[in-house]
């Protein structure tokens, strides 16, 4: 008994058109080879019935070579026409016992977990994962301490909350003024003016910080309001005869300042007070904070609204001094 490969090579050697379509063909030496033009037996290409399970097991029994030989689209079309024109037209009355699926309209069931030979084998592992109902949580390492617990925690993880200001240099501001994109004599320059001129582009909270790059060539006399500014930039603006104020904008007031046309119906001039951590910053006079100009003290109280008789103690008395003053008062009362 020769294998199919040996018979094919033999037929190729003697120059015969030879084609084996299944493992059932076995040729011995001296036996006449089958006619290559003979039709393929119907039991090889067609299933016994249209039942999906019969179709599946039919091709499953033929082996790997014929299992891949699924019905061609031409055969499916022909079989569908036979069903519609023939079998379906013969039915007199529609009833529950006469209803059935159309050919190849139902997807074959995928039989899983039957090993590698079925091409659908699953759970090919040893140990815990060979069972189906295994639900291992993420980062589980079999009971040992996971890596995210073995490694110590990183410190200084609050960098994500750092306020990132968009830089604006005096050199670039001077260039836009010289080219006429910004009119320094039109009034106060704020973020809306800078964005309209295309100097800062898209601005997000907390805003812009004015830096002193190119302060030697800055000669424009301007009145500008920015959320923050460096000490060198403040000095350069004031040396040129201008003025600067550091103004806080919350997210809502910043959006209203940059796009006032979107808030025409509910526009407000209130910029919002800074949070407690930034309140002391905008009360400093050296950075030209707008709260220091308005007359707020370190407690956030306006100096113009204070009670006239209210005066804070400039220095704290020591206990010995308080005791001596008290004893002197008692002696005077005794006399």
From TrEMBL:
Q: Please give the start and end residues of each transmembrane region.
A: none
Q: Name one GO cellular component term.
A: mitochondrial large ribosomal subunit
Q: Which GO terms describe its biological process?
A: translation
> Region (Disordered) spans which residues?
302-335
Bias-annotated ranges (Basic and acidic residues): 302-328
| The keyword Ribosomal protein belongs to this UniProt entry's keyword annotation | yes
Locate the Large ribosomal subunit protein uL15/eL18 domain: which residues?
Answer: 167-244
Task: Recite the UniProt keywords alphabetically.
Answer: Ribonucleoprotein, Ribosomal protein
Name one molecular function that GO assigns to this entry: structural constituent of ribosome
Q: Which family does it belong to?
A: Belongs to the universal ribosomal protein uL15 family.
Write down what this protein is called. Answer: Mrpl15rplO
Name the source organism: Acrasis kona
